[in-house]
């Protein structure tokens, strides 16, 4: 639909709505029909009757009743406080130590003279560390050996940690 047909349909809808809901057409008022109309006393008495009927249905209020709660005012503090319960000490199972935050990032190999020297590239919370056999790592480990795909670290208490 283009804009012209949209405007035509909308205009036709407006005209039809106006014709359907417009004021009722009345013929010309003759002086004779104006004289025949009854006086306007009937609607006034009808209004008074309706007002009396509504007044009789109203319930007289007994005065102001305070609401049961006030969201803007706090209640009184409790006078007695319950004694604190003493809990039996819980038996806590020993937690296994967390594995160290050292990971093997890679292994580099260099030929120095006639022998192969490997360097372990380790990732720690402090950053990257390049370690050779016998070096200290993170203050608590010593590099025992470096193979093609693994590094063996010895902890200060003698525990062995294999990184792959």
Question: Would you write up a description of this structure?
Answer:
The protein is α+β, with helices and mostly antiparallel strands. It has a domain at 103-163. It contains three helices and seven strands. It has helices at 3-21, 31-36, 41-57, and strands at 103-112, 115-124, 127-131, 136-137, 141-146, 151-155, 160-163. The strands form two sheets. The protein has a four-stranded antiparallel beta sheet, with no helix packed on it. Strands 1-2-3 form a three-stranded antiparallel beta sheet, with no helix packed on it. It is elongated, with a radius of gyration of 49 Å. The model has no long low-confidence stretch (mean pLDDT 81).
Q: What is the H/E order?
A: HHHEEEEEEE
SS-derived structural category: alpha+beta
Q: How many beta-strand segments? A: 7
Strand residues, percent: 25-35%
What is this structure's SSE topology?
Blueprint: H1 3-21, H2 31-36, H3 41-57, E1 103-112, E2 115-124, E3 127-131, E4 136-137, E5 141-146, E6 151-155, E7 160-163
Antiparallel strand pairs: 1-2, 2-3, 4-5, 5-6, 6-7
Short summary of the structure?
The chain has 164 residues and is of the alpha+beta class. Helices cover 26% and strands 26% of the residues.
């Amino acid at each position: 639909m283009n804009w012209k047909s949209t405007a035509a349909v909308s205009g036709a809808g407006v005209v039809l709505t106006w014709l359907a809901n417009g004021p009722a057409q009345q013929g010309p008022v003759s002086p004779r029909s104006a004289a025949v109309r009854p006086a306007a006393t009937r609607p006034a008495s009808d209004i008074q009757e309706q007002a009396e009927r509504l007044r009789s249905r109203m319930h007289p209020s007994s005065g102001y009743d305070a609401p049961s709660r006030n969201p803007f005012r706090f209640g009184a503090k409790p006078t007695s406080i319950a004694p604190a319960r003493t809990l039996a000490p819980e038996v806590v199972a020993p937690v296994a130590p967390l594995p160290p935050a050292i990971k093997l990032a890679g292994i580099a190999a260099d030929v120095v003279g006639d022998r192969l020297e490997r360097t372990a590239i380790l990732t720690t919370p402090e950053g990257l560390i390049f370690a050779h056999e016998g070096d200290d790592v993170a203050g608590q480990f010593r590099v025992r050996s470096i193979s093609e795909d693994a590094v063996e670290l010895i902890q200060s208490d003698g525990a062995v940690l294999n990184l792959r």
